[in-house]
Specification:
This protein is α/β, with parallel strands linked by helices. The chain has a domain of about 150 residues: Double Stranded RNA Binding Domain (2-Layer Sandwich). Helices cover about 35% and strands about 25% of the residues. The chain is built from four helices and five strands. Strands 2-1-3-4-5 form a five-stranded mixed beta sheet, covered by helices on one side. The chain is elongated.
Length: about 220
Amino acid sequence: MQNPTYRCRSGYGPVVVATGLCVLLAGCGFHLRGSTPVPDFLQPLALDCDSSVPKTLCLTVQEQLELGGVEVIADVASASSSGPRYQLSLSKFSENQRTSAITSRAVAAEYVLRQTVTVTVRESDRSAVGDRENPPAIILAPAEVAASESYRYDETDVLAKRQEAQLVRDTLQQRVASQILYRLAPLEPPSVLPEQTPSASSDSPAASDSDSETAHGSDANQ
């Protein structure tokens, strides 16, 4: 007598496996594509890139934010007075390349490409209009985000290696954009300072009563 064979119904098995895998990854701290670590208080978020930042990097950051469901206002200048309260600023972008390996003929055989950009998050200027006593708060002080990657160079196939270098640049921008988003994850809204209680002065009622009592005491002693 043969042992009975049990089969999963088509469609149910993959769903169970996929669901279990999602739970496992979430428990380990992984984020599925489309999720975002950006805190809710930053949304909507203005994005400002200075002239040093490549448009491709600025667009990559915007795309990753929007992929996570964040409303991004890229045109900060035309934003209304009731626009986003917080602004993500990218500045001081730099890219450098150095030789990491050479051939026996003292020719570069491998390069390391590195990209850096400075990230700042603060209240937008529009949120503090007319409030000189409380200037825009800095949520994330200027911080440098960097990524690097190596690639081999073949002087006999320059065109192919140029294409490879461009691919590395695109990959680095994706990494830099991802790091920027994770820099936003632990941010918290600026705390509100408690109101200070005014100290007692000579004009306060308590001080006046104290002075009166002192005066009466001195008269009695005389």
